[in-house]
Amino acid sequence: MNLPPLNEVGLIQIDPDNWVVNQSGAITTNVEEHDSPLNFTYSPNPVSDQLNLTFKSTSNIEREIGIYTLTGEEVRSVKSSSNIVDMDLADLPAAAYLIQVSDKFNKTSKKFIKLN
């Protein structure tokens, strides 16, 4: 499928050595997301004591949920098939962390901030 350009293209620069784009416009795409058992929301962010995860899928598949420092050190881990998971993070130091969720087939991660 060919899409007609919305505006005339004035300049395209390709710099494979530095991968720098000096001028760019916006590119809009429409991508449908599938209902993966790993799609989740979390709150609050930033968190002080307890992080609450809510999975969008209603399947009861077991998920591994890990909390990692930005250097990759695992500081918390839990397995759960519940669609709502509450994690106590009160003892963690203030920093940025990653939530990594995986099942047998998929893996995803999101960033959050921990405050004291």
Any chance you could write out the topology, listing elements then pairs?
Blueprint: E1 40-43, E2 50-55, E3 63-69, E4 74-80, E5 84-88, E6 95-102, E7 107-114
Antiparallel strand pairs: 1-2, 2-5, 3-4, 3-6, 6-7
Briefly say what this structure is.
With 116 residues, the protein is mainly beta. The chain contains no helices and 7 strands.
Report on the architecture of this protein:
The chain has 116 residues and is an all-beta fold. The protein is built from no helices and 7 strands. Strands 4-3-6-7 form a 4-stranded antiparallel beta sheet, with no helix packed on it. Strand 1 and strand 2 form a beta hairpin. It is extended, with a radius of gyration of 20 Å.
Based on Cα principal axes, name the global outline: extended
Spans of 5+ residues with little confidence (pLDDT < 50)? none
Which sequence of SSEs, written as H and E, runs from N to C? EEEEEEE
Widest sheet, order of strands:
4-3-6-7
Biggest pleated-sheet summary? 4 strands, antiparallel
Structural class, from secondary structure content?
mainly beta
Proportion of β residues? 35-45%
Distance between the termini: 53 Å
Percentage of residues in helical conformation: under 10%
Measured on Cα atoms, how large is the radius of gyration? 20 Å
Mean pLDDT: 82
Total number of strands: 7
Report the total helices. Answer: 0
